[in-house]
């Protein structure tokens, strides 16, 4: 982790990361507030998309987490780093840096899990170790090792192998606590692994944990999918239109295969099924295409910068959302003003104030060139 000056970054990548992050910062409630204000059915439909699926199925909110993993892979593809033919000494330096990044993300994940003034328990058995940041770190770490040591054909083969093996293991191999093909929470392989090998507690005592052990494996493919998209973007031999066509073809292929597969293997974020992996990669790539086209091709820089100031410090803002009670701060600062409005307008103003305050902090950090890099 370090603070550093800005460097040459793909603006659409930071912008898309910021767009992803803004829904975690509180903007996800804006559609419910708009429905309360207007009563328009469209806002209610949008509001439903900002709730996680109860079990099988997929909503927009289910895509927020996989998109972060996908974008971490895009950076791998854009960097184009390879360790083939590199000396052992140089490799060890890269490995140490990658391992340190993984460990820091795991630590920050525990910090986030026990935020809001609670503090991590003294009893190690009461700590929740599994986290969103750990999942991002693990997926990136193993995807990086694959990208650094394998050519493109090998990367694709490994990704396919992971998805097929995970599907076969989940569906056709009977778990000790259930029967083969049972994608029921407490009877799945994911649940069994978390009960026997995941230290500490699970999220809300759920079994399996949404960020549990076994579902780390297919998430690696999300990062590899991002790496493939990143490779396309930096291909100097391709014209912009060709890049967009390749990205569109890639996203369409993932969506088609994922939804067809879901007829046999349900889309499930908690289990992170192979069908969910493909569909989440496909939609992540669709969003990347939109942002890349609007910001880096059509040069909509102002739109890009609005989101990029958040995306450039996404991890810091994510941690602050747990370590600092923004809602309490907004209520203390503007609670009197918001209370002057009726119950239909007040919630909307509160959400706008919440997000705008965090955005202003992100903008200040961006202008001061202060970035938290992990």
From TrEMBL:
Segments passing through the bilayer: 21-43, 63-86, 98-117, 129-149, 156-175, 213-232, 244-265, 271-294, 306-328, 348-366
Entry keyword annotation includes Transmembrane: yes
Keyword vocabulary terms for this entry: Membrane, Transmembrane, Transmembrane helix
Protein name: DUF5009 domain-containing protein
Protein source organism: Aliikangiella coralliicola
């Amino acid at each position: 982790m370090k603070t550093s000056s800005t460097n040459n970054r793909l603006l659409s990548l930071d912008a898309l990361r910021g767009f992803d992050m803004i829904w975690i910062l509180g903007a996800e409630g804006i559609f419910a507030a708009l429905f309360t204000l207007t009563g328009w059915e469209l806002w209610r439909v949008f509001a439903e998309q900002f709730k996680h699926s109860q079990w099988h199925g997929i909503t927009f909110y289910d895509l927020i987490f996989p998109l972060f993993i996908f974008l971490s892979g895009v950076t791998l593809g854009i960097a184009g780093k390879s360790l083939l033919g590199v000396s052992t000494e140089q490799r060890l330096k890269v490995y140490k840096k990658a391992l340190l990044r993984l460990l820091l993300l795991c630590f920050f994940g525990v910090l986030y899990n026990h935020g809001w003034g609670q503090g991590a328990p003294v009893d190690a058995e009461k700590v929740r170790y599994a986290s969103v940041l750990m999942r991002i770190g693990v997926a990136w770490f193993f995807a990086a090792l694959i990208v650094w040591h394998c050519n493109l054909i090998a990367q694709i083969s490994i990704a396919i192998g992971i998805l097929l093996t995970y599907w076969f293991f989940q569906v056709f191999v009977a778990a000790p606590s259930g029967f083969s093909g049972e994608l029921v929470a407490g009877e799945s392989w994911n649940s069994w692994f978390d009960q026997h090998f995941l230290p500490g507690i699970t999220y809300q005592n759920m079994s399996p944990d949404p960020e549990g052990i076994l579902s780390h494996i297919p998430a690696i493919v999300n990062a590899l999918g991002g790496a493939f998209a990143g490779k396309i973007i930096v291909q100097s031999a391709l014209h912009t239109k060709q890049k967009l066509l390749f990205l569109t073809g890639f996203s369409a292929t993932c969506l088609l295969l994922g939804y067809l597969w879901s007829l046999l293997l349900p889309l499930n974020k908690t289990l992170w099924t192979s069908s969910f992996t493909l569909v989440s990669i496909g939609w992540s790539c669709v969003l990347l295409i939109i942002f890349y086209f609007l910001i880096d091709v059509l040069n909509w820089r102002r739109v890009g910068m609005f989101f990029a100031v958040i995306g450039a410090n996404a991890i810091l803002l994510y941690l602050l959302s747990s370590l600092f009670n923004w809602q309490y701060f907004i209520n203390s600062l503007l609670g009197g003003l918001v209370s002057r409005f009726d119950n239909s307008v007040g919630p909307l103003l509160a959400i706008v104030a919440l997000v705008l305050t965090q955005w202003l902090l992100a903008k200040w950090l961006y202008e001061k060139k202060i970035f938290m890099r992990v």
